[in-house]
Amino acid sequence: MNIFLRRFVPTLVAGFAPICHSATGALVHQLDSAATVTLHKRSIVKIPHPLGRRIVCESGAIWITVDYDRKDFVLEAGDSFSATQDRQVVIQALEPAAISVA
Prior knowledge:
Structural class: mainly beta
Number of strands: 10
CATH superfamily: Jelly Rolls
Shape: globular
Order of helices and strands: HEEEEEEEEEE
Number of domains: 1
Radius of gyration: 12 Å
């Protein structure tokens, strides 16, 4: 495995599977169920149907973007984001981070 890719593979949990590589070479993962996930810097997580879910940044810092929304959100440890629409959410770790999704 390429050393560049190995650095960005998050800790895998049930319901969390790699789906493709981003333009930067980082793996993109899709999260389909509630979980706590550890992310390496630049790891990307997609949540296709987030309505009613709450994302908590447990440690580190993450960047959240919602499809068709002009606003992006940066969360640091202790911050949370609640999805009020069923538009895909993309999360990228700005530094090593841990998130929980419920």
